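[09:14] KT: can someone run the structure on this one? pasting the chain below
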Amino acid sequence: MTPQPLKIRADVEMKCFQFDGVLHIKEAMRKAEAAGNADCPVKIKLVAPPLYVLTTQTLDKVGYFFNSFM
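[09:31] RB: done, structure tokens below
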């Protein structure tokens, strides 16, 4: 039996009202993608401004959570 991947999805709204707010949002998205790795890549998709969807999936259910949040 093949292991089933754990799929994680987050719908987020990103807003920044500063003069260079778009640059801050881009930087935040780059950092979110950098938080992923080869085993658990983070993907970001634009739904409609300011709504974005972050998705990832992994086969290592326990290891992913312990490594990411500790």
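[09:33] KT: thanks! The radius of gyration is 14 Å.
[09:34] RB: yep, looked fine to me
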